[in-house]
Amino acid sequence: xxxxxRRLRPLLAALAAAxxxxxxxxxxxxxxxxxxxxxxxxxxxxxxxxxxAFAAADSPFYICVIGDDPFGGGLEKAAEGQKVxxxxxxxxxxxxxxxxxxxxxxxxxxxxxxxxTALAKLRGEPxxxxxxxxxxxxxxxxxxxxxxxRLRFSIDTGAATANHMMISAKLLNLxxxxxx
Length: 180
Hints:
Layout: H1 4-18, H2 31-43, E1 47-48, E2 61-67, H3 74-79, E3 83-84, E4 87-94, E5 103-109, H4 112-122, E6 128-132, E7 142-147, E8 150-155, H5 157-162, E9 166-167, H6 169-176
Parallel strand pairs: 2-4, 2-5, 5-6, 6-7
Antiparallel strand pairs: 1-9, 3-4, 7-8
Helix pairs in contact: 1-6
């Protein structure tokens, strides 16, 4: 008999597609970063944000890239016309985590030691931190990783709780099954 996780994979893929978690990579960008950009945009609705995360009901939902931006214009393309609840998604680029407290999702494109510093500055803030497993740093909430030639992600629920967020079961299940 086939293992349960193999039988569930098609079901989870169908759920991910229905939930809008299957990214669109038909825009001609580098597939790895086009996929990451789409995931960054799609993560927002699957997080329960604390009431104090937004100054107003229609405040922008900032996705921020800290460090050397690997996305080019791909992140803006992925975010174009998208919202998280009533919050229009906007993209910002920053050199450091200083002033990143109003970002809701932060992609850390920094050297290892600098990622640790940025994570420390953002700890306790309602910020979903995202970095790469290849950076070799723990403490972020979501880590992208490439396994078997596929982009996947893992989620640290303890880090999410420390930042006053709850990750939906749908997103947790997708991460547990290989993240995409």
